[in-house]
Amino acid sequence: MLFTNHPSIGLVLSGGGVRGMAHIGLIKAMEELGISAQVVSGSSVGALVGALYANGNSVSDMLSFFKETPLFKYNFLTILKPGFIDTDRYFEIFKGYFPKDTFSSLEKDLHVVATDLQKGEQQFFSKGQLIRPLLASAALPPVFSPVELNGRLYADGGIMNNFPSEPIQDSSNYVIGSNVSVVGELHKNALKNSIQLTGRVTSLMIYAINKKKLHSCDLLLEYKELEKIGVLDRTGIEKAYAMGYDVAIKTLERKLKQTD
């Protein structure tokens, strides 16, 4: 069979906020079909889902993590840091899921990308402490404050690399990509105000920058319906998860039948 013939499967998970719950749907489909990745690389929400997957957490645990972690909490607000919410306040919440706080404690190899705001460069993390790189990778400006690591300020990995396939290209002989930063065709009524326009333009820029890497995957999953879900819309968690599972199970089953 296709996937059993590839001893090293790599999984790339894009950024995309709440839409990233589709990644969990993909993981659910992979588990049902007996497909497992050995190496994972993620940006922003993809880094968080990837860390939970690499940690051996169940799909139920993954969904609970995002449902129970407060996105906006009054006592997390800050006026002392650049950003509305103090990202460091999430450390203890993450510690409950990653008590050892090290990459080496994970069951799978994990690569996390964040943006060095001072150098204007991307930085990959795969060794040492785990939680702070995760917080940095998901710290979307200007909502969340940058995270200090080794004396430098880091923010959302998606700023410079929303689809971080680079670390696994050489270490995996079959790459599965999951992209939740979708750019499906919109009706003109979907662009009624400045916020909607800005969101659309940002999505197009991100897609264009990562297009070549997306199509270099051996198998790429994209979920066109996700564009109807807001990036920070927590009410869309279950819907995005269901969309991801539906697309993934059909795609993977079809791929398996082609190789029987």
Automatic annotation (TrEMBL):
Catalytic residues as annotated in Swiss-Prot or TrEMBL: S44 (nucleophile), D156 (proton acceptor)
Record protein name field: Phospholipase
Organism expressing this protein natively: Ulvibacterium marinum
Keyword Acyltransferase: no
UniProt keywords, alphabetically: Hydrolase, Lipid degradation, Lipid metabolism
Positions of short motif GXGXXG: 15-20
Statement: the UniProt record of this protein carries the keyword Acetylation: no
Motif annotated as DGA/G, chain positions: 156-158
Domain PNPLA stretches: 11-169
GO MF entry, a single one: hydrolase activity
Motif GXSXG, residue range(s) on this chain: 42-46
GO biological process, one term: lipid catabolic process
